[in-house]
Amino acid sequence: MSLDRRTFNALLAGTPLAATLPEAVAQTARDRIVIGMTLEPAPGLDPTTAAAAAIGEVVHLNILEGLTRIAPDGAVSPLLAESWIMGPDGRTYTFALRKGVRFSDGKPFDANAVKFSFDRARAPGSTNKAKKAVFDNISSVVVQDAHTVILVLNQPEAMLPFRLGENTAVILHPDSAAQAATKPVGTGPYVLDSWNRGSSIVLTASPSHRDAARVRIKRATFRFINDPAAQVAALMAGDVDTIPRFAALPALKQFQADKRFEVVVGSTAGKGILAINNRKAPLSDVRVRRAITHAIDRKAFIDGAQEGLGTPIGSHFAPTDLGYVDHTGLYPHNPDRARALLREAGVTAPLNLTLTLPPPAYARKGGEIIAAQLAKVGINAKIENVEWAQWLSGPFKGNFDLTIINHVEPLDYATAYADPNYYFGYDSARFRGLVATLASTSNPREKGRLWREIQRQLAEDAVNAFIWNPAQVAVSKRGLRGVWTSSPIFANDVAALNWAPPPTRG
Predict the structure, then answer these.
(1) Distance CA 482, CA 459 (A)
(2) C-alpha to C-alpha distance for 263 and 248, rounded to whole angstroms
């Protein structure tokens, strides 16, 4: 394509290129999108074997699909399953699968693929982060016929359809699952085109997808921009079209006042915590963990690190979770009480600890706030900034004192706290008993009671310092439709995106 003088002069004057190009060329760009993300998926693109939420942001609903779909409002609907029936005792689910569905390599999706994926997730040695919470409860996966699969559970689980809509339950191609981290093959509307590590991932529409004709966006580029200032610059320059989970919150008013952009603030299932290594002395002493919690001013953190966009929490539940109870009053901000608890525990000030911070702005900016608050009670938290891969190989493997992280998965208390080997090392037989009892009951009133007890114990044991439930902030070019307004799960449903038709000329 050559540029005429009118187009060249317009570019020099700062006029957007699309306004000067022939209509056919400008329209071509409307089938493409660039999405900004804070973190790059690590260590790969298989959400069934790794914990990073960023993996689901790229592949879930795009390349890889599950039996069910979770909508932005948390509602569950069929996806690879057409329908399902729960048995009278709540211990069996019969799924009728969609017919005519194929993986992107042309091979058919069927009940055997479901059995393979779920048997893999529940196998000994599985690293699926939902293994304990979901797949260990599946006693068998029965293939009734090519399009009917039965899940037999050890204990009733009314939440199973929701759980199967999370990225941990996507269906993998049995022939290529071992390569899913680098070459995922799924039933979704997109395929992996390229991965420029450290920079971007490109997906292109799959021509063989069952609803290919309905997919408006033919090419989606995910750009990794973890610096908040760079996120602002990329949006202003037009280098990205949307950042669904915008991190540069101090710049929010700038975009709200700019008619070129649309800003939407919604909810998440996130639990932002100061994670504490329960295995290490003196952090293994509950009095020290309680002192740390009393030292933290949640409102000051939310105001300073999140521009006031968040809700204080006092346990590992979000306000959007079923059975949520506000436990922030159990450990209010009280530096005097924090210092007294440290003395009771025999800690001589200053207590020197390392505060390891991953790249997100909430951690880097919030870490400075937390360190200052801890210093006021005699805890010297030395800040150590690390990249995401270093965080996964360090703190997430249990090598840390303190770290700030947002747990985004809904109702992940069993995954995080019923496993003594989880990274912060909480080991409570009573808590595991509560989780086991909850899993075995189908009575709604009893479930509610157990959820309340679970939250209360996590709060009383001060396993971590529970700080805030983050809001979701999406900043997009005006005219882009379909961006999720809330995140019950971390996903970017690219096939749901489209550009509004350009205004007609009068």
Answers:
(1) 38
(2) 12
As a whole number of angstroms, the distance between CA 55 and CA 232 comes to: 23
Question: At which residue do the structure tokens 């790249």 appear?
Answer: 359
Q: Residue 295 has which token pair?
A: 């030292």
Orientation angle between helical segments 361-375 and 298-306, nearest 10 degrees? 140
What is the C-alpha to C-alpha distance for residues 114 and 122, in angstroms, rounded to an integer?
12
| Cβ atoms of residues 323 and 317 within 8 Å | yes
Amino acid making up residue 254: Q
Say if CB 273 and CB 316 are below 8 A apart: yes
Q: Which token pair is 432?
A: 């595991």
Residue 356 per-residue DSSP state: E
Q: Which two tokens stand for residue 260?
A: 């070129």
State the angle between helix axes of 429-440 and 444-460 in degrees (0 to 180), rounded to the nearest 10: 160
With a threshold of 0.85, does the pTM exceed it? yes
The neighbour count for residue 110, using CB atoms within 10 Å, is 20
d(CA 425, CA 418): 10
Query: Could you give the CA distance from residue 63 to residue 45 in angstroms, rounded to a whole number?
Result: 10
Vertex 51, ends 269 and 157: CA angle to 5°?
60
Handedness of CA 415, 68, 162, 201 (dihedral sign): positive
- Structure tokens given for 64: 């890889």
Tens-binned pLDDT, residue by residue, of the chain (506 aa): 333 333 323 333 333 433 433 433 344 478 999 999 999 999 999 999 988 899 999 999 999 999 999 999 999 999 999 999 999 988 999 999 999 999 999 999 999 999 999 999 999 999 999 998 899 999 999 999 999 999 999 988 888 999 999 999 999 999 999 999 999 999 999 999 999 999 999 999 999 999 999 999 999 999 999 999 999 999 999 999 999 999 999 999 999 999 999 999 999 999 999 999 999 999 999 999 999 999 999 999 999 999 999 999 999 999 988 889 999 999 999 999 999 999 999 999 999 999 999 999 999 999 999 999 999 999 999 999 999 999 999 999 999 999 999 999 888 898 899 999 999 999 999 999 999 898 778 788 898 999 999 999 999 999 999 999 999 999 999 999 999 999 999 999 999 999 998 766 55
Q: What tokens appear for 354 in the block? A: 């390392």
C-alpha torsion sign, points 6, 8, 12, 15: positive
